[in-house]
Amino acid sequence: MEPLSGHSLYNNIAVMKKRNIYLYALLAVTLVLAFGSCKKDPKIGGTKTQPLDGEWWVTTKGSDGSTSGIYSLNTYNTAANTPDSLWINDGNNYYGLKARISANVSNLTFSATNAHELYYDVNVTITEGKVLPMAATAPGSKDKTDSIYFKAVFTGDPTVYTYSGYKRTGFAQDDH
């Protein structure tokens, strides 16, 4: 029988202390790596044409008496992201309108003179283009939203088309 000297108990405690030190060190390294690799989120800004950008529900009326149903039209910044031009795109609905046009963000206006229309390879002139902040009431939710208005004439067609509508609210009851 071995005498009770406490020697093996002392060894067990020493081993446990070493193991705890290793575990604490591993935990500390893990925490340092986890929190050290955290970076602040980048500041996300808007586009240079943001006040004119959006998805719109519009109708179109022609000077020849033609009318459209309600359809989606988008305005958005160009790849250059400059405040003096934007894209207008109706997704080839109604007449087919996709062109890069001039923008004046501070006045919330836009226009084009013989801009190249990409769906049908014609030119389009846009006049009286404007966005009116909070000037429309969405039909379902009755929320106030922005309004859009402009006139367009396409080469080869003397009809003046008047576009008008409201900015998409994101509520299903306002979608068409």
Overall 3D shape: elongated
Computed over alpha carbons, the radius of gyration is 32 Å
Q: Strand pairing plus helix content: what structural class?
A: alpha+beta
CATH class of the largest domain: Mainly Beta
User: For the terminal residues, how far apart are their CA atoms?
Assistant: 92 Å
How many individual helices? 1
Strand content: 35-45%
Instruction: Return the CATH topology of the largest domain.
Output: Lipocalin
State the strand order across the main sheet: 1-2-3-4-5-6-7-8
DSSP strand tally: 8
Largest sheet features: 8 strands, antiparallel, barrel
Explained architecture:
It is a single chain. This protein is α+β, with helices and mostly antiparallel strands. The protein folds into two domains: 39 residues; 119 residues, Lipocalin (Beta Barrel). Helix content is 17%, strand content 40%. The protein contains one helix and eight strands. It has an eight-stranded antiparallel beta barrel with strand order 1-2-3-4-5-6-7-8. It is elongated. The N and C termini lie far apart (92 Å).
Topology of helices and strands:
Elements: H1 7-36, E1 54-62, E2 71-77, E3 85-89, E4 98-104, E5 109-117, E6 122-137, E7 144-154, E8 161-167
Antiparallel strand pairs: 1-2, 1-8, 2-3, 3-4, 4-5, 5-6, 6-7, 7-8
Keywords:
Lipocalin, 40% strand, 8-stranded antiparallel beta barrel, single chain, 176 residues, alpha+beta, 1 helix, 2 domains
